[in-house]
UniProtKB/TrEMBL annotation, chain B:
Native organism taxonomy: Bacteria, Pseudomonadati, Pseudomonadota, Alphaproteobacteria, Hyphomicrobiales
Keyword Transmembrane recorded: yes
Record InterPro entries: AA_ABC_transptr_permease_3TM, ArtM/GltK/GlnP/TcyL/YhdX-like, MetI-like, MetI-like_sf
Positions in coiled-coil regions: none
Main location: membrane
Protein name: Polar amino acid transport system permease protein
CDD domains given in the database record: TM_PBP2 (cd06261)
Pfam families given in the database record: BPD_transp_1
Family according to the record: Belongs to the binding-protein-dependent transport system permease family. HisMQ subfamily.
Source organism: Rhizobium viscosum
Ranges annotated as spanning the membrane: 12-39, 51-69, 75-96, 182-204
KW Cell membrane (keyword) present: yes
Compartment list: Cell inner membrane; Cell membrane
Automatic annotation (TrEMBL), chain C:
Subcellular compartments: Cell inner membrane; Cell membrane
Family that this chain belongs to: Belongs to the binding-protein-dependent transport system permease family. HisMQ subfamily.
Listed transmembrane segments: 12-42, 54-76, 88-107, 188-210
PANTHER family reported for this sequence: L-CYSTINE TRANSPORT SYSTEM PERMEASE PROTEIN TCYL, MEMBRANE COMPONENT OF AMINO ACID ABC TRANSPORTER
Taxonomic placement: Bacteria, Pseudomonadati, Pseudomonadota, Alphaproteobacteria, Hyphomicrobiales
Organism expressing this protein natively: Rhizobium viscosum (Arthrobacter viscosus)
InterPro entries xref list: AA_ABC_transptr_permease_3TM (IPR010065), ArtM/GltK/GlnP/TcyL/YhdX-like (IPR043429), MetI-like (IPR000515), MetI-like_sf (IPR035906)
Protein name listed in UniProt: Polar amino acid transport system permease protein
Cited Pfam families: BPD_transp_1 (PF00528)
Keywords: Amino-acid transport, Cell membrane, Membrane, Transmembrane, Transmembrane helix, Transport
NCBIfam families for the chain: HEQRo_perm_3TM (TIGR01726)
Topology relative to the membrane: Multi-pass membrane protein
From TrEMBL, chains D, E:
Span of domain ABC transporter: 6-251
Family: Belongs to the ABC transporter superfamily.
The protein's name in its UniProt record: Polar amino acid transport system ATP-binding protein
Main subcellular localisation: membrane
Keywords: Amino-acid transport, ATP-binding, Cell membrane, Membrane, Nucleotide-binding, Transport
GO molecular function: ATP binding
Entry annotated with the keyword Transport: yes
Keyword Cell membrane on entry: yes
Subcellular location(s) per record: Cell membrane
The organism's taxonomic lineage, starting at the top: Bacteria, Pseudomonadati, Pseudomonadota, Alphaproteobacteria, Hyphomicrobiales
Length: 250, 213, 222, 263, 263
């Protein structure tokens, strides 16, 4: 069945996500807020439907997507080659290029290359891990890479002093540093190849019209400047993102 | 950490408590049935009960929940999150409680069953009126234990979209980046809930009439 | 629904190593938990009021809070109070202590179920307290504590999955990493379920075997 | 001759290798008090339990008022099990008082006595409790109706057990060592209750070490030794002129022990 | 006068609010058989258990052959606990047979009797089992050595319990109703065993409801009522001319019951 038709008929589009991915999706004072919430509201307006959120831990998101519990996944996720084999990505909504978060006042790291030989945390099985590995190869002494099940734990270990920094996408760590000013600090500039965040949907024929419609809506939102406004609101700066990613760097 | 965050945790813990309590009660009813099947001595009843216990004790609860939540819709039953959570927890705790009860039934003094046979009670009446109350008395501490385990295991129902205590702590840690404070607070709330459960268990246990010698 | 088993087959070395870590932590942790739990039960029984109260409070905290939260606080909070453990030892110690709290309660209920008179008979023929514990209490409570102990062994096995949060490379961490790298969540979870289910079946089978072998410790009430 | 209340025919009971009852043949006459005596381990409890079909005999049959209980056996020794419902119906004529009382710990004295009236006889709660209370009054326990077994003394528990059995108005009562753990004063109380029953014409089989009771109340004495019935007859035959050497020897030790100070 | 085998001095025992033993003073003479009689709940078992330090007395002392067991007490009433090892050494002189037998259910009859020989006396398995077997033969249970308690009749269990205590060759034996589950014949046998022991100079304290037994075997009769020693003296004094009203009353119920057929 055509999912787009079903969504329009129902008047609501269900969006699945995890609410522990600030600043895209998070809980602030008990409310689900973030870039995704604002952006999907705009997409909903374009499609003429209301948005209904389903929040799950990341483990449960994809089985539920396949089971039809919702129509699309917000997330977002870094667009990678392997992931594109299984799922369909929307146009990018933010840059995912990697940068370093360090402890506030740490004089030993002032530019990305300073992490050579140091212990750096990164999320296990993430696109950021691949980027960090590639960057590390190019340094005189390799980075001592520590993998964490989720970034929350790597930030905890950075605070505890077990590691010297965390490598993650710039939008995420910029938010962390803002939240815990005086504890953490971002090391600029970002490094490595450019990569981008996209929303995720199913590749099958049933979902193609819906995904096409979302793509079109997002490009429209980007073209008329609403996207840049939202990026400013949540990241403090806007990004220059391509209209689509056909051949990701990783 | 602000008072607001603690309030959010407390609100989330309402899910933890209600889902757990409902599941434990439903699970108990199923467990009685299962242990009765196990003890019936008839293959027709014993095998299915064994398979049930093997599955629900063997497969991680997380996977059970995902199956109930995501597979039932495939065969046309669309279960809301809260129902999926309660079904999952109930079936899982039923498997564990059935094993506990089996031990309790095996410990009912044989003479008490014989005296029931002598006054003419049917096997079913003996089960309901003699064995169940005595086995319950014998296994009550184990049942309270199971209740505490389920209260803690209920954190897994977040996988079907319910933001209970642990999930709320994780979500809040994901935006405030204060995981130690949030987890310590969540731990404290669990401790208080479980302490109350143990306290209530102790009170009920003392009210249960007559322990067998 | 997408289901591509090759995703997993390609990663078999990582999976085998994850399974190995899980089994190692599970077995060592369970043995340590049972031994520590037994000693705690003995200490509570014979160590006097104060030890009983203190250990009772420790057990209440360990049983009253989720393992996930305990291990997170100890591992990530530890360095702030000068306790800096590596993931593997932290995980092993964590499982052992968490399990010990439960085992101590199982053994304690076992002790209480042994009729006082049997202990007194031992005292009267001059057995020492150690001999009474070893030769009378332990064998007499065997059948009573066996089923809850098997339950506990199963529960501890599943708790090892929590150790992924402190970066222990056990099977759940390994498989969910494979899952999220390639977005093959269904495959990863299926493999995980199958693995734990097999381990639980083996445990249950060993438990039944033990019940049969030890059935001479099953006493029929007159 | 009338149909015996209990007819034991050629009964054999083995536990694994050990044979505990050897081809026991017995007829318990209705309306009489029969006492089962014999040394420890001779099989008294086992025989009583077989009579109530709490123990499955290995061979032989038990009939209650002419109806076969448990297993039928044909001339070739083929045994066939009787349906559970039929067994329950036959067993309804028998009441048993256990050595350990076996009261249900989760019910009060009144609950213990009224339970079967409600569950088996389908009496209303009110009627059942009225009848149970009447029975408790009979054994002098009206003041303890609301007590749980753990709150009753040994003698009181014993009397509740008797009341529980009697409330069902059985035709036959079986007692297994009803006084072994009671002190002389309590023993007296229990024996009085039994004497009253005997006077009302109840058929009773009593396993007892209390030879005094056997002598005064028993109308038939059955002496069991090593799983065999060595003697069965009236108290006069037993105590005045025992003609069985083994029985004589058994009784001698008793007279030896107790008589000297009483005489 | 010689040192008493057991000296009980001013013993008080309370459970919570209830005082069960009131200032009991007693001297058990070595090589004699002393019988403790009294109604149910009078404190007989409690007194015996205090003598074996299975129960901690609230006040007062117990001495075994002149050595204080459990707690010393000075003139100000300050009590001090004696070391566990010292208590064990003193207690090694005492053997006890419990009312409930307290056999270990996971060991055979032979295992129950040989356990302490192996564990305490460090005898080899073979020697221990030989001596245990000899003891089982003495109580007539050679054929049941391999049985577990659940496979033994009541009387057989009781005899295993006696054998277990005797195998350690204690100087003093405490019996709590040793014959309650025995038939008259076996009671006689057990009595003979006890007579032999007495002849060998064993000191014995026997709690018994069997007044006949007390009368014929006891050399000292102690009558306990409501936790007080109301009478202590020779059997002749007790049974021929009891001068204590309560004692007379207690004995009456017994005579009532058993005498009719013996006379
Ligand atoms: N489950 C069993 N397995 C093996 N032997 C058994 C079992 N139950 C009873 N026996 C044996 O059967 C015999 C008869 O036992 P029973 O209990 O009938 O004796 P009894 O006459 O009632 O003795 P007592 O007066 O001591 O109660 C005993 O020798 C006992 O050892
Ligand atoms: N743990 C206890 N708590 C409270 N009261 C107790 C306890 N143990 C015994 N008693 C009471 O102490 C009194 C004496 O008990 P004991 O067992 O010594 O009596 P006994 O003379 O041996 O009686 P019997 O002949 O019935 O065995 C009884 O009234 C009993 O209820
Ligand atoms: Mg018997
Ligand atoms: Mg007593």
């Amino acid at each position: 069945a055509d999912t787009l038709a079903a969504v329009k008929a129902a008047g609501t589009m269900k969006v699945g996500t995890e609410t522990a991915f600030a600043p895209f999706d998070f809980i602030d004072a008990g409310e689900h807020v973030g870039l995704n919430v604002d952006l999907f509201n705009e997409i909903g307006k374009e499609l003429g439907v209301k948005i209904e959120w389903v929040t799950l831990p990341w483990d449960g998101v994809f089985p539920a997507l396949e089971a039809g519990k919702f129509d699309v996944v917000a997330g977002p996720a870094t667009i990678t080659k392997k992931r594109m084999e299984r799922y369909r990505f929307t146009p990018p909504l933010a840059e995912a290029t990697i940068a370093i978060l360090k402890k506030a006042g740490d004089q030993t790291i002032s530019k990305p290359e300073d992490i050579a030989g140091k212990k750096i945390g990164v999320g296990k099985a993430t696109a950021q891990l691949d980027q960090l590995k590639e960057f590390s190869e190019a340094l005189p002494t390799k980075v001592d890479i520590r993998e964490y099940p989720a970034f929350t734990e790597s930030y905890a270990d950075l605070a505890a002093g077990r590691i010297a920094g965390v490598a993650n996408s710039l939008p995420n760590i910029a938010f962390v540093a803002k939240q815990r000013e005086g504890t953490f600090e971002v090391v600029l500039p970002p490094f490595g190849k450019k990569s981008y965040f996209g929303f995720i949907g199913l590749k099958d024929a049933d979902h193609a019209p819906l995904m096409d419609a979302i793509d079109a809506a997002m490009l429209k939102i980007k073209a008329d400047g609403r996207m840049a406004t939202l990026q400013k609101k949540w990241f403090g700066a806007s990004f220059d993102t391509p209209d689509s990613v056909k051949d990701p760097a990783f | 950490m602000s008072v607001k965050l603690f309030e959010l945790l407390l609100q989330a813990s309402i899910y933890t408590v209600t889902i757990s309590i409902v599941s434990i009660l439903i699970g108990f009813a199923i467990a009685i049935l299962l242990s009765g099947m196990l003890l019936s001595g008839r293959g027709l009843f014993v095998r299915p009960a064994q398979i049930f216990i093997s599955f629900f004790r063997g497969v991680p609860l997380l996977v059970q929940l995902l199956l109930i939540y995501n597979l039932l819709p495939v065969i046309g039953i669309n279960v809301p999150s809260i129902v999926a959570a309660i079904i999952g927890l109930s079936l899982c705790t039923a498997a564990y409680q059935a094993e506990n009860l089996r031990g309790g039934f095996a410990s009912v003094p044989r003479g008490l069953v014989e005296s029931a046979e002598m006054v003419g009670l049917t096997p079913r009446q003996i089960f309901r009126r003699v064995k169940v109350p005595i086995a319950l008395r014998l296994t009550f501490p184990a049942l309270v234990n199971e209740a505490i385990l389920i209260l803690k295991a209920s954190s897994l129902v977040s996988v079907v979209g319910i933001v209970e205590l642990t999930r709320m702590a994780q979500d809040l840690a994901g935006s405030t980046f204060l995981p130690l404070q949030l987890f310590a607070s969540a731990g404290l709330i669990y401790l208080v809930i479980n302490w109350l459960v143990a306290l209530a268990g102790g009170l009920i246990e003392n009210r249960l009439p007559g322990a067998p010698r | 629904m997408t289901f591509d088993i090759n995703v997993l087959i390609g990663q078999w070395p990582a999976i085998v190593s994850g399974a190995g870590v899980t089994i190692m932590i599970w077995i060592l942790g369970t043995i340590a938990a049972a031994v520590i739990g037994f000693l705690m039960a003995v200490a509570r029984q014979y160590g006097g009021m104060l030890i009983d109260k203190v250990l009772g409070a420790v057990v209440a905290v360990l049983r009253g809070t989720p393992f996930l939260i305990q291990i997170f606080l100890v591992y990530y909070g530890g360095p702030f109070v000068g306790l800096d453990l590596d993931p593997l030892p932290a995980g092993l110690i964590g499982i052992s202590i968490y399990g010990a709290a439960y085992f101590s309660e199982i053994f304690r209920s076992g002790f209480l179920a042994v009729p006082r008179g049997h202990i007194e008979a031992g005292e009267c023929v001059g057995l020492t307290q150690g001999q009474i514990v070893r030769r009378i209490l332990l064998p007499e409570m065997t059948m009573l504590v066996l089923p809850p102990s098997v339950n506990m062994v199963v529960i501890l096995m599943k708790e090892t999955a929590v150790l992924s949060i402190i970066t222990v490379p056990e099977l759940t961490a390994t498989l969910s990493a494979i899952g999220s790298q390639q977005y093959a969540f269904v495959e990863a979870l299926s493999a995980l379920a199958l693995f734990y289910w097999v381990l639980v079946e083996v445990t249950g089978w060993l438990g039944n075997l033990a019940e049969t072998k030890l059935s001479r410790f099953r006493f029929f009430n007159a | 001759m009338s149909v015996p209340a209990i007819a034991v025919r050629n009964l054999v009971k083995t536990f694994g290798e050990t044979t505990v009852l050897h081809n026991v043949d017995l007829a318990i006459e209705p309306g009489q008090v029969s006492c089962l005596i014999g040394p420890s381990g001779s099989g008294k409890s086992t025989l009583l339990r077989c009579m109530a079909f709490l123990e499955e005999a290995t061979r032989g049959t038990i009939s209650i008022n002419g109806e076969v209980l448990g297993f039928t056996e044909d001339s070739q020794g083929r045994r066939e099990r009787i349906s559970a419902a039929a067994n329950r119906a036959i067993r309804a004529q028998i009441g048993m008082v256990f050595q350990q009382f076996n009261l249900w710990p989760h019910m009060t004295a009144l609950g213990n006595v009224s339970e079967a009236l409600k569950a088996v006889h389908k009496m209303s709660r009110k009627d059942a409790e009225e009848r149970a209370m009447a029975q408790l009054v009979k054994v002098g326990l009206e003041g303890r109706a609301g007590h749980y077994p753990s709150q009753l003394s040994g003698g009181q528990q014993q009397r509740v057990a008797i009341a529980r059995a009697l409330a069902l108005k059985p035709k036959i009562m079986l007692f297994d060592e009803p006084t072994s753990s009671l002190d002389p004063e309590l023993t007296g109380e229990v024996l009085n209750v039994m004497r009253d029953l005997a006077a009302e014409g109840m058929t009773m089989v009593v396993v007892s070490h209390e030879i005094g009771f056997a002598a005064t109340v028993g109308q038939q004495i059955i002496f069991l030794d090593h799983g065999k019935v060595l003697f069965s007859g009236s108290p006069q035959e037993v105590f005045k002129k025992p003609r069985n050497l083994r029985l004589e020897q058994f009784l001698d030790t008793y007279l030896d022990r107790g008589a000297s100070m009483l005489l």
